[in-house]
Every structure is written in structure tokens, then in C-alpha cells.
Design brief:
Residues 171-239 form the Thiamin pyrophosphokinase thiamin-binding domain. This is Thiamine diphosphokinase. The structure is a single chain. The chain is built from 5 helices and 15 strands. By secondary structure, it is of the alpha/beta class. The chain has 2 domains: 14-161, Rossmann fold (3-Layer(aba) Sandwich), CATH 3.40.50.10240; 162-246, Jelly Rolls (Sandwich). A hairpin with a 3-residue loop joins strand 7 and strand 8. The longest helix has 17 residues, at 132-148.
Length: 247
């Protein structure tokens, strides 16, 4: 079994190899637009999913947001104003397939970009707030993406005003925490995402498990806590890892 390393918080490392995706999620009063803009502006490529271009257009002047390089989707959510606003600034990629979300279509487009082999992570802004089925769809898109690039070392993270979420591969995963503890509350957890028997062994959490099956209807890890500077997770199936971000 291979070994994989995750960095929390990921936007503090090697930003020159980062792609940012802005999803069409509600922006509420607690949303840290300054954090979003920091991540967005430092990325080497910036993708909007259809309706999220409306968000970037709305906040662009106030937060000095860079233009998206690409806007991807079936274009059922983008306004006419945003279409005109980005007409000569961004490349529009029409992806009408209704079997997949605009997020999944965007990830597919990233794999087709010549720069794909040079990136090491994808940071996704939003995708967790709003409708519950949209949040589940975001997680499904990550799993689908990771299954399609099994041999790649690219990491993908979902970020909102409260959470940082990623999906592990089937490997020994090391999570470096020490340098980022000032930005985390310490609350964290993990849970299954696959519809297959999932067995995990962890070290570094307040409540660790040893070769224990986790499942909905059984045991999942919620309201756990970081107990060491380095966390270790061993799993036979991909699982969700989540950390609470300080506001």
C-alpha cells in the first residue's frame, strides 16, 4: 500500500501548482471572501462552474478578483450580465451532459488541460453550503475524479467558511498539522463515502480507531479532535476527512 501526504491548510503550500474552482454555492454573511480571493488570485488556473461566474462578477471589484480562465457548464445558471461581462475575458466551455454536475465536468476539463501534469492540488471554493444534495454531489465528484486519476498525486480539497474537506485515497495517509494549528479549531473527523466495507486505523486523533469498520448505521467519527502534530490514517477504501477552520 502506498503512502500519501496531505497538508492542512493546503493553500499555504506551493501555490504556483494550484488550480482553483469556484462552485455555485450561496455566499452568506459568514463566508470568508477574503480567503476565497486569496486562494483564487494565487492559482495558476481559475475555473468557474456556470453560475459561480455571477459570484465572481459581483465581488470582483470589491475584492480585486482575477478573471476566471474558464467558465464550464450547461449555462443554465449564468446571467446575461455575466456572459457579457466575461465575454472577452474568459473561455466558455459548453458542457450540456446532464448525467454529471458542472463540478464533475470542470474536473474533466482540468484533466484535458496541458498544464494538468504540472499541478499538485485543486482547491474548490464552496460546494458545501446550501442544498444538502448539492453537498453530496460535490463529494461524489471528488470521488469520481480520484478514481479516474488513480496514479496521480493530485490532491483536491473543498473549502467553505467552516470546513476543509478532502477524500483520502486507499493508502497510508499522513496529515501534517503543526504549522497550521493556529487556523484550525482542532475539531475534525472522518467517515465512509464508498458503498463498500471500510476499515480504518488512525493515530493522532483524540479518539483513534484500530482496524475498525466505519459505516453509516454503525460507527463514524464526528466531533473528534486533533491530538498530535501529525495524523496517520490507514484505510482500505477512500474516506472523507474534515477539519473545522477558525472564523
Amino acid at each position: 500500500m502506498s503512502e500519501s501526504t496531505l497538508y492542512i491548510l493546503p493553500w499555504t503550500n506551493n501555490s504556483d501548482q494550484t488550480v482553483a474552482i469556484w462552485l455555485n454555492s450561496p455566499i452568506n454573511e459568514n463566508c470568508d471572501i477574503e480567503l476565497y480571493s486569496y486562494i483564487w488570485n494565487r492559482a495558476i488556473l481559475r475555473y468557474c462552474t456556470d453560475g459561480s461566474s455571477n459570484i465572481v462578477a459581483k465581488y470582483q471589484k470589491e475584492y480585486c478578483l482575477k478573471d476566471p480562465n474558464f467558465i464550464v457548464g450547461d449555462f443554465d445558471s449564468i446571467t446575461e450580465h455575466s456572459k457579457l461581462y466575461f465575454k472577452n475575458k474568459s473561455q466558455f466551455i459548453h458542457a450540456p451532459n446532464q448525467d454529471f454536475t458542472d463540478f464533475s465536468k470542470t474536473l474533466d476539463q482540468i484533466t484535458q488541460n496541458p498544464i494538468f501534469c504540472n499541478i499538485d492540488k485543486i482547491l474548490v471554493l464552496g460546494g458545501l453550503c446550501g442544498r444538502f444534495d448539492h453537498a453530496l454531489a460535490s463529494l461524489n465528484s471528488i470521488v469520481r475524479f480520484q478514481k479516474s486519476i488513480l496514479k496521480s498525486q493530485i490532491k483536491i480539497y473543498l473549502i467553505d467558511e467552516n470546513n476543509l474537506i478532502t477524500v483520502t485515497s486507499t493508502s497510508d495517509t499522513i496529515i501534517n498539522i503543526k504549522s497550521d494549528m493556529n487556523d484550525l479549531t482542532g475539531k475534525c473527523g472522518y467517515m465512509p463515502i464508498m458503498q463498500e466495507k471500510t476499515v480504518v486505523t488512525t493515530n493522532g486523533f483524540k479518539w483513534d480507531l484500530k482496524e475498525k469498520e466505519i459505516s453509516f448505521g454503525g460507527i463514524i467519527s464526528t466531533s473528534n479532535e486533533i491530538d498530535k502534530d501529525v495524523l496517520h490514517v490507514k484505510t482500505n477504501q477512500p474516506i472523507i476527512l474534515y477539519f473545522e477552520i477558525k472564523k
